[in-house]
Amino acid sequence: MKTKHAEVRAQQRGINDGVEHLLQVYGEVRPATHGCVVRFFSKKSIKEMEADFGHVFIAKNHENLRSYLIESRADRAIVTVGKLYQNQRLTKSKVNRLYH
After folding, report:
1. d(CA 69, CA 78)
2. Which domain of life is it from (predicted)?
3. Helices marked H in the chain
4. Per-residue pLDDT tens digits for 8-37
5. Residue 36: which of 77, 90, 93, 97 has the closest Cα?
6. Which residues contact 43 (CB under 8 A, 6 or more apart)?
7. Distances (CA, A) of 90 to 10, 21, 93
8. What's the whole-model pTM score?
9. Contact present, 42 and 91 (Cβ < 8 Å)
């Protein structure tokens, strides 16, 4: 389930339902504010996907590996989606800033 806001942001940022599904299955989870969590692709999750789908899949989808989503803990609805800039990592302080 996605909010209207998440649907608009996904379309604006070129993040399709397949990437959102991969984030929900393989993405690393970090707590965020207001009862939400952030899911993103860490090095560990990328290695897990590489083991399941192969190196070629990772190489072809490298742009999508910068994606993240913010999900409600209560009903697992996707609140918003986005892409991290190059060389940006999610630290606890950055997670808090994403949602404020």
Report:
1. 7
2. Bacteria
3. 4-13, 17-26, 43-53, 55-60, 92-98
4. 999 999 999 999 999 999 999 999 888 899
5. 77
6. none
7. 19, 20, 8
8. 0.79
9. no
